[in-house]
Amino acid sequence: MIVIGRIDKIDLPEFELFDIDAKVDTGAYGSALHCHHVKITERNGKPTLEFMILDPDHPEYEGKVFYTTNFKEKMVKSSNGELENRQSITTEIVIFGKKRRVEFSLTDRSNMRNPILLGRKFLSKKFIVDVQLKNLSYNNKYKES
User: Is residue 71 part of a domain?
Assistant: First the structure.
């Protein structure tokens, strides 16, 4: 297993976003991605999820609208303990130089320090968390072959 700290940086190549801050949270079951303007519309006769990643205050924000027909709706317990209906997508991230698939629930994390949360479902059997450390993947990004 790989040692990961409490915070790291990840890439989201499908969305052309790189070095985005992610909080590693063993207290959260699922992973979450900061989005806004999340809504289900219809395109070409199919239910389509429409969303924007990050927000205008974030340096990597590009104002792009993303669309996918590959999404789920599910109930998620929020950080304040309330159940919320959220949409989720599965996408590829790059961390420690490796591509991995992650399911993210899409939610407004504008009041949080980090736009991405990596939960236990993703971390399990891959990582050991050392809360005294941070940015281990990012610090080793260019050293790996």
Answer: yes
